[in-house]
Amino acid sequence: MNGELLHIVEALHKEKEIDKEIIFVGIENALRTTIQKRFGQNKEVSVEINRETGEVIATLEGEKLHPTELGRIAAHLAKQLIMQKIHEAEAEVVYKEYRELVGRVIPGTVQRIERGNVIVDMERTEGFLPQKGRVAGEVYKVGARMRFLVVNVVKQGQKVRVELDRASEDFLRLLFESEVPDIQEGIVEIVGVARDAGHRSKVAVRSKDPRVDPVGACVGVKGARIRSIVEELNGERIDIVAYSDTPEEFIAWALKLDEAVGITTDREHKIAYVTVPSDKLSIAIGKHGQNVNLASRLTKWQIEIAPEEVVLDIEGVPAEVINRLQNEGYNTLNDLKAASIEELCEVEGVDERIAKRIKEFIVKMEEKLVFGEEEGAQGDRE
Questions:
Q1: Within this chain, domains 168-243 and 246-382 share the same CATH topology
Q2: What would the DSSP string read from start to end of 295-356?
């Protein structure tokens, strides 16, 4: 019997990677509880297992108990409690292991869909991908091998719940860190990430070595590095942007426009007014405003975009009044938007009614630009 107990402890230690002392203590506690249930909770009970021989020494009120005194029922209860303690110890080992992985990306296999969560086989335990961590339009096929960000680990009794994520900006950042050696070595640094998961993302990078092109380092030879990331994200479009300490330059690069753009900045309120060629306006704004919104989040500047020239054909506003507005310097949508009703009324021929019509015209133009189609937009999807 003693040898069998040592054999069980050794097997559990090797199979479950649980420290032997944890197992011995668990068995001792379980036996102590069983004896107290059998003879009374207020009884003084002592249980000790010899670590070398496996001999169990139990005393009740100082009197040594013979194993047969525990009876068949007590033995059965002890077995149940022993297994409970073992499961708890195993859960503790798994909890500690995965707690160390929080904030890291690890592989897993999609196992099933359960109550809106994607259940993932993580080898030692199951992880769950909640709705908030899922990417819009992404399909999770049973058996599919994917990578996940470990967000949180919680132990609930004998179960360990590992919360996963694939939709966050942190997940994208860590994918870059895993695929780009220059980032791992600290030569290239990720300055910022803005992501519309499943659709488009922007990643700003800079190099600490003037000899290393940060964008090229992330793209890789023939696009190998960025291609690996895009494939993991099922074709999500990724713009890699070179960072600049000059806001005007950084904003222009974040918008991903090849042509020169005009940028003026209100540094106090962190607002950038950008003018672009009329034929590039829809590209700069992006479909449903996606490009400019991501650029704003990446640069942390509010970006207002307008065409270099705009035809002011406003219903109810005479042509001569429009000419006077342009003569006063109101040549773009941003010029008109920035002006207050009172300032517009200072122009000859403009009263409050006309000023309000101008403001309504600006709103309609912006809605048309933002919700129009993104014609011919291109990016760095290598």
A1: yes
A2: HHHHHTSEEEEEESS-----TTS-HHHHHHHHHTT--SHHHHHHS-HHHHHTSTT--HHHHH
